[in-house]
Design goal:
The chain is mostly helical and 158 residues long.
Length: 158
């Protein structure tokens, strides 16, 4: 994943509500799966395994966030565990077919959660963050980001 993608994800996380956080995690999973497929195609097994480790970490977060009091959470848990098994297959066999299975499952979940995120009107999970304004400027397709309250205390409240 490129540095720019990481910055975009970080910015989105600071402004996201609970549903949007799940959307972002799914997008991160898909990005790291793409990284794993690219590394495998280039024969870079170390990078391939690193990408798989990051995907596992995302699934760990998704599993930890489940509220198992609901039936839907139990179904999501089985999907996440299936995806973890497929990651293990991909790692052991050094093949991308299991990654295609994960991509299919997560893409469908992503579409559903994007629709839910549009209906979720709750506020951002993170509080006390800087507001970022981004837009195109005069330059040739350059993106300019401006932070408001740059001097404000963002970490601790007095």
């Amino acid at each position: 994943m490129t540095k720019e993608y990481k910055q975009q994800f970080t910015l989105r996380i600071t402004q996201a509500n609970k549903t949007e956080l799940i959307v972002i995690l799914y997008e991160i999973v898909l990005a790291y799966i793409e990284d794993a497929e690219t590394a495998l195609a280039q024969g870079d097994i170390t990078e391939f395994r690193e990408a798989l480790r990051k995907v596992r970490s995302c699934f760990g977060e998704l599993i930890a966030s489940l509220n198992l009091e609901y039936e839907l959470a139990a179904r999501l848990l089985s999907l996440y565990l299936y995806c973890n098994r497929e990651l293990t297959k991909a790692d052991i066999r050094k093949t991308k077919e299991p990654l295609a299975h994960i991509n299919s499952v997560i893409s469908k979940l992503l579409a559903a959660y994007r629709e839910l995120a549009g209906q979720d009107k709750s506020g951002p999970v993170m509080q006390n963050t800087q507001t970022v304004y981004a837009g195109l400027t005069y330059g040739k397709n350059s993106l300019s980001e401006n932070l408001s309250d740059e001097g404000a205390n963002r970490g601790f409240r007095a």
